[in-house]
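Researcher: Re-running this chain for the archive, since the previous output was lost when a drive failed. Same request as before.
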Amino acid sequence: MKHAETVTFGGSGLDRAGEIRGNSSAVAFLRKASDSRAIVFWRGKPLIQTTRPAALVRLPMDHPILEHATEDPIFLGREDGEGRFAFDVSAWEPRDLDPHLLGGFLDPSEQHHPDLADDQVFAELRRTMTWLSPRDAELAASGRAIQMWHASHGFCAKCGAKSDISHAGWQRNCPSCNAHHFPRTDPVVIMLITHGNSVLMGRSPGWPQGMYSLLAGFVEPGETLEAAVRREVFEESGVTVGHVDYLASQPWPFPASLMFGCRGEATSRDITIDPVEIEDAMWVTREEMMQAFAGEHPKILPARKGAIAHFLLENWLADTLD
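Model: Regenerated structure tokens:
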């Protein structure tokens, strides 16, 4: 396995068993199998066992909490030959729920269902992703991403009629115009732009104080990754970029992106930010970035572990990008 595949949410090699998604009998057989397990989500939060080592919880398929599910589960694949299904129990209403915390940038709240063990809670995946093994992280990311797609794509984009789930959750069909719809993934470039000994960092409005990251942006239709890197960097910072290389990718289920990590060489250094896109940008030297990673920089917090920005910066500092 390439070093680039060790990024969070990558490299577990899950058997997605795509060949049986359209075989309702085979999926039904796995759903009834005694060794199949449920991966459970509540409003996008996976069920996590918080006792260390933390892990994604796998429940029996007849667990009482699954009665809260209002849709058929999504078949995620096979783990060591055993079926894994994602259930959405968002219909459950926890007591003492604080709606102001839900959906925040880093939601610290946890929700505990009375039918679960004390250390089994629904927790925000951004906060817990680095606690999980590669396999747990891939299952959690896959289940969350496709459930979020279903939540926002319940109607046919062609005629507007309500669509139906099919292919074990990996397709929606329109009974009115017979159109077929498939889960979307939004391509995003995130760029390690260097000029000599420095890397270009920026921050978006509303981010926590001290948080800076690599510049990033969506790839537009008809655009290559390399062109997207150059366009996004120039639009956000006014810096021009020459040579561009692809480095690594990361599924990012917030809600449904695939991050393409790229390296680019700046051909200019002057910064002119677009205040609509970002709040600030700066060149940061290797020495300053090492301070930030150590938590000792006066302005910049260390990059968030688990995100591909942290992965790229860490490997830039260690000269292990290639």
